[in-house]
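User: Run a structure prediction on this.
Assistant: Running it now.
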Amino acid sequence: MSGLTWHDLEFSLGRHLQVMPDDEIFTLYVDEPDRPGFDPDFDSCARYVQFCSYDQGWVRCEVVSNKYLPHDLKHSVDDLIAMRVDGWTLPGDEDGSGSPNIYLDVEVCDAAAASARVMRVFREVWHVADAGGVTCDADALRGRHAFRVLEAPVDFRADAPLH
């Protein structure tokens, strides 16, 4: 995904979150197979944000928590404070509406703001150098929205038509 800018990825994510059908799920993650300690049989090594639409107009964004990260990738206290200040809810209340991950529930009308928060996690918390370091696991997508074409960066232009 070389040539993909943070702005275009943020715009495309926000646009996609606005039109996701209920119960659609997908994940954006940092692909790091060359990282020391990476175990391909242990899929929780990747730093990821997962998304799920629900209740006709809501989206949950979840940043992987320390519960699932290997020791060398765990969030620092400063990272957790920064995410909390940015509106993310820390893990907890798993029996209620909470999550074992760091999460954000937004109405689709606030999808652009949620997308900006997700990009800040990739850029400022995880220090991903460029948007090309972000990969989409789109297996669960129904094949009709912007993220089905992640391998074609031209479709991430801010002025690209909505699919």
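The chain has a mean pLDDT of 78.
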